[in-house]
Amino acid sequence: MRNADVLLIAPASANTLAKLAGGLADNLLTSAALAARCPLVVAPAMNDAMWEHPATRANVATLRERGTTVLEPGTGRLASKGEAGAGRLPEPPAVLAAVEEVLAPGPHLLGLHVLVSAGGTREPIDAVRYVGNRSSGRMGLALARAAADRGASVTCVAANVGLERDSRVRYVDVSTAAELHDACLEAFPRCDVLLMAAAVADFRPVEALEGKVKKAGRDELALRLEPTADVLADLSARRRAGQTLVGFAAEHGEGALAFAREKLERKGLDAVMLNDVSQAGIGFDAPVNAVTVVTADGEHEVPRAAKEAVAGALLDAVARLRTGQERPA
Ligand code: CTP
Asked: What is the model's pTM?
């Protein structure tokens, strides 16, 4: 097990999925899975009622959140006599493709330059305080890594990101929206794909106060804010043929899709990756995400999964968009 590059469980019964989700290690298989230090791919096979049972749905969701690749079962005749539905072991080519994807995602982006912005900007109030936001940079860094995995050369403009870095990516560290704007302007002409994942401040203090503001003698402290430039809209206005521009939208609940579509059009983008931040446990600061890819042609759901897995799916959607194949529908 120590030397394995991937662990594939095919077929995986409803019982095994439940044990894996619960971290049980009561037989050789589940003990190996718990001790494994490599990616896990699971190909379920069971009765359709078992697959659709809320307990199995929850177990599958838990496993996917942890980064396990759980394939969708095939549909058709099942082992139980006369029964048909979703639950057949996926066909061998589908299982093989999933393993290959985990081991080495196709070099869909070979020869392309991808520019990613990540993290959240900080706008100084005084020498030690700032107006910031909750973005950790985890999604942006996962996108940068996924683009490198797919053969792209990658520049990542990182705003206040304190996470582990990938040696294949060139990082440009910035702090404020203005610095991020300058760094993106500098790198943009060379890029083929822009992934604007950073949470950029929309407003900043009109002036940063000198030194550290003291509270003594103050009943209140008013901050006056002014708008920052919209970096993405500015880059979009300078775009050249052949560039693919992707924006990110964190929206809340009802109307999220309409807001994302409005952003797509207003900022002249090829795709908007929409996060509905009203869903518990996803988006800002969280290790998991769930995204809707919104394009001029329609929408395409990327189900809830570890940000690394979501990043891979988004990059594959971008690659398809560029080749015009299988446009998200
Ligand atoms: N963006 C940017 N420059 C800004 C603000 C946002 O480049 N000053 C980018 C973000 O990186 C993201 C997209 O624009 O890709 C988000 O669009 P935006 O309209 O700014 O979203 P919100 O900040 O959520 O705006 P609103 O409050 O209008 O919904």
From this structure: 0.79
**Closest of 112, 109, 115, 208 to residue 158, by C-alpha:** 115
Tokens of 94: 């589908």
Given the CA of residue 202, which atom of ligand 1 is nearest to it? 8
Cα 1 to Cα 300: distance, rounded to the nearest angstrom = 36
| Ligand 1 atom closest to the CA of 246, numbered from 1 | 15
Of 261, 253, 252, 251, the residue nearest 297 (C-alpha) = 261
One-letter amino acid for residue 305 of the chain: A
197-249 pLDDT, tens digit per residue, is: 999 999 999 999 999 999 999 999 999 999 999 999 999 999 999 999 999 99
Extended strands (E) in the chain: 7-12, 40-44, 69-70, 74-77, 84-88, 113-119, 123-124, 130-131, 153-159, 169-174, 193-196, 203-205, 225-227, 244-251, 271-276, 288-295, 298-306
Placement of tokens 């809830």 in the chain: 304
Q: Which residue is it, tokens 């002409």?
A: 189
Token pair 């044990």 is found at: 19
155 Cβ partners below 8 Å, 6+ apart?
Answer: 113, 114, 115, 116, 169, 170, 171, 172, 187, 191
- CA-wise closest residue to 89 among 34, 8, 25: 8
Confidence of residue 318 (pLDDT cuts 50, 70, 90): very high
The answer, yes or no, to whether the previous bond of 227 is cis (omega within 30 of 0) is: no
Q: How far is the CA of 306 from the centre of ligand 1 (A)?
A: 23
User: 244-251 and 153-159 as β-strands: parallel, antiparallel, unpaired?
Assistant: unpaired
Q: Output the CA torsion 147→153→159→165 (10° steps).
A: 70
The stretch 68-74 carries a mean pLDDT of: 88
Domains of the chain with CATH codes: 7-103 (3.40.50.1950), 113-321 (3.40.50.10300)
Residue of minimum CA distance from atom 6 in ligand 1: 200
Q: Specify whether the CB–CB gap between 306 and 287 falls below 8 A.
A: yes
Q: How far is the CA of 230 from the centre of ligand 1 (A)?
A: 7
Longest dimension (CA), the chain: 83
